[in-house]
Amino acid sequence: MASGTILALALAAGLGGHYTTSLLRNVKASTDGNFTGIGSPEPGAPINILVMGSDTRSGKNSKGHGDPNIISGARSDTTILLHVSGDRTRVTAVSIPRDSQVQIASCKTPSGGTSGNYVGNFNEAFELGGPGCTAKTVQELTGIPINHYVVADFVGFKNVVQALGGVEVCLTKPVNDSYSHLNLPAGKSTVTGEQALAFVRARHNLGDGSDISRIGRQQEFISSAIRKATSAGVLTNPTQLYDVLAAVTGSLTTDPGLASADALMNLAVNVSDVSPGKITFVTVPWVANPDGATVSWDPAQAPQLWDAIKNDRQWPPATSAKPSAGTGTSGTTTDSTAKPRTAAESVCSN
């Protein structure tokens, strides 16, 4: 789901003109009232964008995804912090495990009250006070100023993948999962629609069943989607390019400061020259908790990551090849879900 943001920024700069301005007006503004971000930075300053995938079952998202009366509310099924360097030459995409035990910020609730200020699963912040609460929680936990946030839902994700003509994925063994309905052979497959959504959301019968394992697959999928979207086949096909951008912009909800054609175009221009090889995916360094279901951020390594982002330094450091703490088996051709990878790396070619 986070792929939508990166694709929107990369493609909008290339499309230009009236069509881009018209499409960018499709982006919706969130009004949850909890966002304490600092807005667009000065030229030459880093940009930090929190990207969230909502698991809401309300409205159009209820079809095939569960009864909203049974699975109520919305959580941040996927959360990625995008750090765009001040010189606009690189992007670091940090996946935050949804089951991280963290201090949830004190936030306004939809009913008009206040809640939070307790230790719980990270994705509870979204359910408690919307995307603004998640952004506020990340900002308080890390000390990193969040400029903007972006949210996409199930239907938006599927529309983007459909417009791309599918995304290539790889599995080391066949999967037929009755929970997610993921049914794929071993090796390469091009997925779209429900199979694409199942690939990034599946936990049962794939890998070790953990959220950490799923993060590895999400990073692989987003990398593949970025390569597809920035390939000559898409960029030189005006009809498909327009369709992809229409799908992306029609699926996004942002903070009020980003929900304008001018703001989005400015952001797009800022990152238009960042190639897939300069987009690095990492996972917050973590340690397993005794309950076997949740994790905590590694007290030694996680602060180093946040410090690097706050000071606009490359992560991982160029002189260090040591993976972050925490590993798992994703069921794909990579074994360490915490090992940094770039969007240019394809597991399908391994």
For the residues shown, what is the average pLDDT?
81
Q: What's the structural domain tally?
A: 1
Summing up helix and strand content along with how strands pair, one would put the structural category as: alpha+beta
Query: Helix segment count?
Result: 10
User: CATH class, please?
Assistant: Alpha Beta
Looking at this structure, what is the CATH superfamily?
Answer: LCP protein
Kindly state the percentage of residues in helix: 25-40%
Order of helices and strands: HHEEEEEEEEHEHEEEEHHHHEHEEEHE
What CATH architecture label applies?
A: 3-Layer(aba) Sandwich
| Strand order within the widest beta sheet | 1-14-9-2-3-4-15-18
Uncertain segments? 56-62, 64-73, 321-337
Total E-strand runs: 18
**Radius of gyration from the alpha-carbon trace, in angstroms:** 19 Å
**CATH topology call:** Aminopeptidase
**How large a portion of the residues is in β-strands, by DSSP E?**
15-25%
**What gross morphology would you assign?**
globular
The major sheet is characterized as: 8 strands, mixed
Give the end-to-end Cα distance, rounded to a whole number of Å: 25 Å
